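Input.
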Amino acid sequence: MTAGTAPVRPSGALRARRLPPGWRKAALSVHVVASVGWLGVHGSMLALAWAAAADPGARGAALDAAGLLSGLLVPPLSLVALVSGLVLSLGTPWGLLRHYWVTAKLVLTLLLVVGSNLSIGPAVRTLAAGPEAAAGAELVSALGALSVSFTVLLATVLLSTVKPFGRIGRRAREGRRR
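Output.
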């Protein structure tokens, strides 16, 4: 920038989309709490499912606890994590489709919200309703689904902290400049 040149500022339309700092911090706090809570609930359900598989005597209590967690906490935590993530991406410079890591998190979160609420949760609650029948393939299937969902939730945390891959379309813009 040379002397006498005004700094380049975003247009009014772009500036209007940004959250004020206080709102951004509040949205980020809500997002982190909901996301970490969702991760913790899935980790707890996974541990309870392992306990049910390892100890037939504790199977009923462990599956009851997992069923309660899947019904009471997973739906609100997953939806709050999704909505707060959308608010943050649309209200900050990160953008929804500007960076690969944000887009990857969005896709993974959408898959997890659908899978957690429409597949894994009902399966865990079904196991809790009839723990005496939960000794075989149903319990192994639930363990597998919970393991995958927990791993994907961990991956979304890593995407948030590492922020890999750069911006979408950056290579195309750099190629045009040369």
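The chain is about 75% helix and 0% strand.
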